[in-house]
Design brief:
The protein is built from three helices and five strands; from the N terminus they run H-E-E-H-H-E-E-E. It has 137 residues and is an alpha+beta fold. The chain has a domain of 66 residues. The N and C termini lie far apart (52 Å).
């Protein structure tokens, strides 16, 4: 039977935790090894869950973008809804900079505090160096 990567990793960690006492006799550090392997198992589980979440979100994004029945605006709205849900933010937006104004073009928000067409002074945002539109994107 083939050993899983997680099991192999935990076995390797267990093997690392052996020591010799002053007389040269082999002494095992099982307690420390259990704590480390428990921590490693928790970390591996957390990493696996994070990867599964990232894969799910990427799959959802692809499905939204590839949907030929949705208009551009519907795709943007769906992507913003997904972004806001995954990042747990109060709003998500696709905006543009017009002069010294930050213009909200598309908005998905928990309330009506920010709506499509709203503007804010550029200085009030975290946008400091807008990408020059003359270079194209």
């Amino acid at each position: 039977m083939e050993q899983s990567a997680e099991s192999a990793f935990l076995d390797a960690v267990n093997e690392l935790f052996v020591a010799f006492d002053d007389s040269g006799a082999l002494r095992s550090h099982n307690r420390v090894a259990r704590e480390v392997t428990g921590y490693a198992r928790t970390e591996l589980t957390s990493m696996r869950e994070q990867l599964e979440t990232e894969e799910r979100v990427l799959r959802e994004m692809y499905e939204i973008i590839a949907d030929r029945d949705r208009s551009f605006a519907e795709k943007v709205d769906a992507l913003l809804r997904l972004e806001r849900a995954e990042l747990e933010t109060e709003y998500a937006s696709l905006s543009r900079i017009k002069g010294n104004e930050y213009v909200f073009e598309y908005v998905d928000a928990a309330n009506d505090n920010i709506q499509r067409g709203d503007t804010a002074p550029l200085s009030a945002t975290n946008c400091k160096l807008p990408y020059p539109t003359s270079l194209g994107v």
